[in-house]
Amino acid sequence: MATNGKKFPKSFLWGGATAANQLEGGLHEGNKGMNIADVLPGGKERLAILQSPGFDFQIDESKYYPNHEAIDFYHRYKEDIALFAEMGFKAYRMSIAWTRIFPNGDELEPNEDGLAFYDRVFDELHKYGIEPVVTISHYEMPVNLVKEYGGWRDRQVVTFFERYVNAIFKRYKNKVKYWMTFNEINSGLIMPIMGLGFAIHKEEDRYQPTFQAYHHQFVASSIAVKACHEIIPDAKIGCMILFAPVYSYDSNPENVLYALQEENLFNYFCADVQVRGEYPTFIKRYFKEHNIELDIREGDLELIKKHTVDYIGFSYYMSRTEKVDKEPQDNTQGNIMSGVKNPFLKASDWGWEIDPIGLRISLNKLYGRYQVPLFVVENGLGAYDKVEEDGSINDDYRIDYLREHIKAMAEAIEDGVDLMGYTSWGCIDLVSASTGEFSKRYGFIYVDKHDDGSGTLERKKKKSFYWYKDVISTNGEKL
């Protein structure tokens, strides 16, 4: 194991990250309602649904829905949290399923069974000294709000969300000190089904409903920040974005400008509103060119300006390279987005380019722009893992990936970036959000569950489990 040579802060929050819809299961237990992920089938068909118009959010009995059972964290959370504690986690980034608290989303009173479940989870985490880092809405919108209201298109959803956040802040004010509002909020620009709670109609221009829904989310986010600061004064609440630095394919000024425009819209638009408290100047031209006219109510902009987030949580998996004149053969796949192939980078089993230096670049860009604390709340390698005859899982490729990204974080801290912590994505194997696969594994803990739904759900420690345990115990000094 190598020595890092760079220092992480003593208070650094090492841990792992998951989302309720991707690991809990317990579909109808505790009066839970149906959410968006519950109606998305597994396999490559899911990605097509997410990127195409016209999805109806209906269950098709002929298809397999992996999120219904997932890895059964709902019944096995004590076993899993004990494994997290054995690794030495300081923090566990998780989400609350909106549909456990308000099964349909528009009820007047919360569901006690759902509230009690998360009480038990938080108590179990605190038993081991693990700090919960909770995402309020992580691709778990109630399907009822999608079908009856059109998701975040409808201003009424702001009221339902306010009811939800007040319920969980009041219930967990003594148990949760780190919150985030909307997971990867900017992903709705590409994938509105999961982030904004609606599918674009086939005959519809996507721009107007997308940005109106964003305005409603920005208002809701500010309401949540205000409520959190009032109800839990010692808590911190952040936004959460998907960040992928955009490189120009070459030094052609047209490509440089195009890369800048893509980065502004995707990486900075949502963060500018939530961190700076106002719509950025570059979006005005974009709205004009796409005939977007927002319904902004009296007091909205003042609310957004006054109640900005305390920190930025973000996911980092890869960078993105762009040029104006793309050919189909130039394209590469990535985390819900595509760009052109970068000749200097290798790719994962799923075609996501691997760029540790890009994480250092991202941290410097974000901190330089906003000057608020940062938190890497997702980063990891989705890969095929093989269980050997002796039961071992030798995932050196994952260790190599994580080691280089942790080194990049250490360099960014040396650069002067204020970094709060690091929670590796999918610390235990779970359902892939974009493809509904179990075979796309991220975890330090292997779960015996497969793409066809078979498996015993047995947990096994991978080689990376022991490696990450050492990383945490030495505060990142030994990699």
Automatic annotation (TrEMBL):
GO terms for biological process: carbohydrate catabolic process. It comes from the Bacteria. PANTHER family: 6-PHOSPHO-BETA-GLUCOSIDASE ASCB-RELATED (PTHR10353:SF122), GLYCOSYL HYDROLASE (PTHR10353). It comes from Heyndrickxia sporothermodurans. Belongs to the glycosyl hydrolase 1 family. This is 6-phospho-beta-glucosidase. Keywords: Glycosidase, Hydrolase. Pfam families: Glyco_hydro_1. InterPro entries: GH, GH_1_N_CS, Glyco_hydro_1, Glyco_hydro_1_AS. Transmembrane segments: none annotated. NCBIfam families: PRK09589.1 (NF007154), PRK09593.1 (NF007158), PRK09852.1 (NF007356). Its EC number is 3.2.1.86. GO terms for cellular component: cytosol. It is an enzyme of class 3 (hydrolase). One of its GO terms (molecular function) is 6-phospho-beta-glucosidase activity. The active site is at E378 (nucleophile).
